[in-house]
Amino acid sequence: MGFIISILVTAAALWVTTVIVPGIQIESSVSSFLIVAVVFGLVNAFVRPVVKLLSLPVTIITLGLFSFIVNALMLMLTAGLAGNAMSIAGEGITYFGWALIGSVVVSIAGTVIGWILPGKD
Predict the structure, then answer these.
(1) Are 24 and 102 in contact (CB under 8 A)?
(2) How many CB atoms within 10 Å of residue 67?
């Protein structure tokens, strides 16, 4: 049950992100948001720990600021794996900029939505 709630919270956070960040688009159907949320959850569960471990020295040197870069890379990977369901506008720096802003918004929105929902552990 916790997994389903986590996916729903992530889907809601992704929806908030598409409303706030104009450079990130997800097809406006519930199934698209759920698919992207599952892909994002899998990326964060399997890829992110490895990347965080490999980037630990840089994260320490930058006093944790490099974790924002890691989060943006995970969002970019999710967009790549989700296919046509999700897209990030632009190329190069612009593309990364939207991913960076989007990753911050997803984190904040997910935290706030998690606080609102009772019993999400």
Answers:
(1) yes
(2) 17
Non-local (6+) Cβ contacts of 43 within 8 A are 74, 77, 78, 81
The amino acid at 87:
S
**Residue 82 and residue 14: Cα distance in Å, rounded?**
13
**Type of residue found at 20:** I
121 domain residue, yes or no: no
Band of pLDDT at residue 1, cut at 50, 70 and 90: low
pLDDT (tens digit per residue) in 25-62: 998 889 999 999 999 999 999 999 999 999 999 999 99
Residue 79's H or E segment, with its range, is helix 66-81
At 69-82, the pLDDT tens digits run: 999 999 999 999 98
Domain that holds residue 91: 2-115
Instruction: Please report whether residue 42 resides in a domain.
Output: yes
Q: Supply the pTM of this predicted model.
A: 0.87
CB 78 within 8 A of CB 36: yes
Contact 18, 82 (CB under 8 A): no
